[in-house]
């Protein structure tokens, strides 16, 4: 295991700022259209916000476009799978719901590449090895996302996250970004069968069927 150099960290942060700023400007017309669609079909708020742990497990507020209807037991809208709308499925399949997350990258909460930020309540469930995923900024995409995304088991995802931590480099980052484009076009691993995304991570009950909200 080798630690990334100070030069790598500075260059990576600089690239994050330039790329996120550029993508926010270029995608602004698309984001405006998505915002209108979400507002008219799902109502307000347009953005889904949730606290997630970042670098060194410091909590920040993640921003994405909403993809789910509000819970309504009378209409049978209880689980994430039931609440995920047709528009929401399209946004997730094309990763358009992730566009507001570029603000998190610009602010320094996240990087373009790194382990995906999960839920705060998962923090005490990690093994010491799995918790090493928080040694770097979380990413919009990562090694696990281009290696199977939500079709992977939690154990496989965490192993890939730690592998990235141990081998991070500009070459690996660029490879992941390129593979991300391919994965989005193929729409690979968007969800596990029967789930909006995949089951919740439960260290004591690994097959728990509770959904993980809007990853």
Mind explaining what this structure looks like?
The protein has 215 residues and is mainly alpha-helical. It has one domain (6-186). Helix content is 40%, strand content 9%. It contains seven helices and four strands; from the N terminus they run ααββαααββαα. It has helices spanning 6-26, 28-41, 80-83, 86-94, 101-107, 154-167, 170-186, and strands spanning 47-53, 59-65, 111-113, 139-141. The strands form two sheets. It has a two-stranded antiparallel ribbon with strand order 1-2. It has a two-stranded parallel sheet with strand order 3-4. Strand 1 (47-53) and strand 2 (59-65) form a beta hairpin. Helix 1 (6-26) packs across helix 5. The longest helix is centred in the N-terminal third of the chain and has 21 residues, at 6-26. It is globular, with a radius of gyration of 17 Å. Mean pLDDT is 86; it is low at 191-196 and 205-215.
From the structure above, extract its key features:
mainly alpha; two-stranded antiparallel ribbon; globular; 215 residues; 7 helices
Secondary-structure map with pairings?
Blueprint: H1 6-26, H2 28-41, E1 47-53, E2 59-65, H3 80-83, H4 86-94, H5 101-107, E3 111-113, E4 139-141, H6 154-167, H7 170-186
Parallel strand pairs: 3-4
Antiparallel strand pairs: 1-2
Helix pairs in contact: 1-5
